[in-house]
Amino acid sequence: MATKKSDQKDFVLADAMNEVEELIKRMEDPECSLEDSFAYYSKGVGLLKKCSESIDKVEKEIEILEDEA
Questions:
Q1: Vertex 47: Cα angle to 19 and 65 (nearest 5)
Q2: Is there a contact between 23 and 43 (Cβ–Cβ < 8 Å)?
Q3: What is d(CA 23, CA 34) in angstroms, rounded to the nearest whole number?
């Protein structure tokens, strides 16, 4: 699934990490059903992938800036 440019602009790493933490709390709830746990897990994996991509992008930008300096 391709990421739209507007999605990339609106993505905030800290917000995504907070959402992942919230998903983990929901999954740890003994009342959470297996179906809900799977949905939370799937959403969390997607968010973590976006976080990783965001961090990779920043690391590449830093390397470019260091090479220019």
A1: 110
A2: yes
A3: 14
Query: Under a CB-based contact definition with an 8 Å cutoff, are residues 57 and 19 in contact?
Result: no
Tokens representing residue 16 in the block: 């995504």
- The pTM (predicted TM-score) of the whole model is 0.76
Tell me which residue of 20, 21, 41, 19 sits closest to 32, measured CA to CA: 41
CA 53, 54, 59, 62 dihedral sign is positive
Residue with tokens 């990421």, as numbered in its chain: 3
For 14-54, the pLDDT digits (tens) are 999 999 999 999 999 999 999 999 999 999 999 999 999 99
Name residues whose C-beta falls within 8 Å of residue 42's C-beta, 6 or more positions apart in sequence.
none
**Total residues found in the chain within this entry:** 69
